[in-house]
Design brief:
Elements lengths: L9 H6 L5 E5 L2 E4 L4 E4 L2 H4 L8 H13 L12 H13 L4 E7 L2 H18 L7 E5 L9 H5 L16 E4 L4 H4 L6 H19 L4 E6 L15 H11 L3 E5 L13 H5 L5 E4 L11 E6 H14 L12 H16 L2 H16 L8 E7 L2 E6 L8 H11 L2 E2 L1 E3 L2 E4 L7 H20 L13
Parallel strand pairs: 3-13, 5-6, 5-7, 7-8, 8-9
Antiparallel strand pairs: 1-2, 2-3, 4-10, 9-10, 11-12, 12-15, 14-15
This protein binds pyridoxal-5'-phosphate.
């Protein structure tokens, strides 16, 4: 294999090569042997309109035929990138007003982290640079973005810049609450811990806090009641910027256009990617408030120019695909549509609630989790369930003992049935320790 595969054991991949996906058909993908798999996670929580879409294909083709590339450096920009910026500015929650483009979620987080430093320098606060991230956070696999990510395998051996990062507790009520502690009391405790960390480390050295409105790769953690209001109070008290990482939650995933609207967050910056273009073209963006924009713009003017940007940032084909994606979302009446599917998904999963292996089911929009086992349940349970499900033709993602679900918005009622039925079978098979022999090797989601 001439490829070094991300988030894969390379030696294991030499022994058993990754499953080759050759085609998509709606929410289903088809491997080289013709086996079909319904993807209950829309790839990496991202293919919001499935794996084929005639309108996105046509939008990309038309843009390729009109202007296949241009940049946004030094006084030029693709007109369509400007159109996308206007559209995003109209959709973004307050107080966000401006966007800066990139190509991936990780580079959006890298950019946001750089902007924190630029912004604080512009204010003459040159020590106020470190960023607080949470246990369980995933913010990408660049340099600072990997350091912000909590998973040790993103740091180990890479010398990521840990000194730029401070870590605070995750909002996992099920696992981390004290006995008898209410959700509100737990949220307040997390806020008190954050405040104590800031006071201990000195607010004068801390520029920003980054958080996913609802955590994805950390186990699909929905914030407990009151959590974001408490956290924002602490940050405001210490003049610390809030970066909402909406790379998973943006564009309908949690039921509102943005996770910030689902959970009452008013961020200073927001990172977005994935569902911005339904993942049909690599495009990301960092949105910022007028205040952040103006401070950065003034500093850049004084320094001569704004010295940051990527060759492919604001790519015209990415902008065209994103605009068409947003048009499709508007036509489907995104929030109503996701709300309807969310109710269906919750109803379909509810049958699992009393299963002895299931500790909790969490659903918000089309982001859901089935968390297995009581505290201390053996590791590897999640992997076994996802293998059982893949052998039955449905891809889920396991995160420890959490089974993550985030289907495309184009999922049908029948496919939601298939997701719930297959998961119930896979959980039951794991519980009984009976492994259904797959016809062929089980795929790794
Ligand atoms: C919340 C969050 N931030 C950042 C990223 C990194 O995005 P990318 O893989 O496009 O670099 C991800 C990827 O899953 C993510 O979930």
């Amino acid at each position: 294999m001439a490829q070094l595969f991300p988030f894969t054991d390379p030696l294991a991949a030499q022994e058993k090569s990754p499953l080759e996906i050759v085609r998509g058909d709606g929410c289903t993908v088809i491997d080289a042997q013709g086996q079909t798999y319904l993807d209950a996670v829309a790839g990496l929580w991202c293919a919001s309109l499935g794996f084929t879409n005639a309108r996105l294909t046509a939008a990309a083709q038309q843009q390729f035929e009109t202007l296949g590339y241009y940049h946004s450096f030094m006084g030029r920009t693709p007109a369509i990138a400007n159109r996308l910026s206007e559209k995003l500015a109209a959709l973004l929650p307050d107080p966000l007003t401006h966007v800066l483009y990139g190509c991936s979620g990780s580079d959006a987080v890298e950019t946001a982290a750089k902007l924190v430093r630029y912004y604080q320098n512009a204010r003459g606060l040159s020590d106020k640079k470190r960023i607080i991230a949470r246990e369980g956070a995933y913010h990408g696999s660049g340099n600072v973005s990997a350091a912000l990510t909590a998973m040790s395998y993103c740091h180990d051996g890479f010398d990521t810049p840990a000194s730029q990062v401070l870590r605070t507790g995750r909002p996992h009520y099920l696992r981390d609450a004290e006995p008898g502690e209410t959700e509100i009391a737990f949220a307040k405790r997390r806020a008190r811990e954050l405040n104590a960390l800031i006071e201990r480390e000195d607010a004068g050295t801390i520029g920003a806090f980054i958080g996913e409105p609802a955590m994805g790769a950390g186990g699909v953690l929905l914030p407990p009641e009151g959590y974001w209001a408490e956290i924002q109070n602490v940050l405001a008290r210490h003049d610390i910027l809030l970066i909402a990482d909406e790379i998973i939650t943006g564009f309908g995933r949690t039921g509102r256009w943005f996770g910030c609207q689902s959970f009452g967050i008013e961020p200073d910056m927001m990172t977005m990617a994935k569902q911005l273009s339904a993942s049909f073209f690599p495009i990301s963006a960092v949105a910022m408030s007028q205040k952040v924009h103006d401070t950065i713009a003034r500093q850049a003017h004084d320094l001569g120019l704004f010295g940051h940007g990527f060759t492919y940032g604001g790519h015209p084909v990415g902008a065209a695909v994103a605009l068409e994606t947003l048009a499709i979302y508007e036509e489907m009446d995104l929030e109503q549509h996701v709300g309807r599917l969310s109710d269906m998904l919750a109803e379909r999963l509810s049958g699992l609630r009393t299963h002895p292996l299931v500790a909790e089911i969490r659903v918000k929009g089309l982001l859901a989790a089935v968390e297995l086992g009581p505290k201390g349940t053996e590791d590897g349970l999640g992997t076994r369930v996802t293998e059982e499900a893949a052998a039955r033709g449905v891809f889920f993602r396991s995160i420890g003992n959490v089974i993550a679900i985030s289907p495309a918005y184009t999922i049908s009622g029948a496919e939601l049935d298939q997701i719930a039925t297959t998961l119930a079978e896979a959980v039951e098979a794991t519980y009984r320790g009976q492994t259904k022999q797959p016809e062929k090797e089980a795929a790794q989601p």
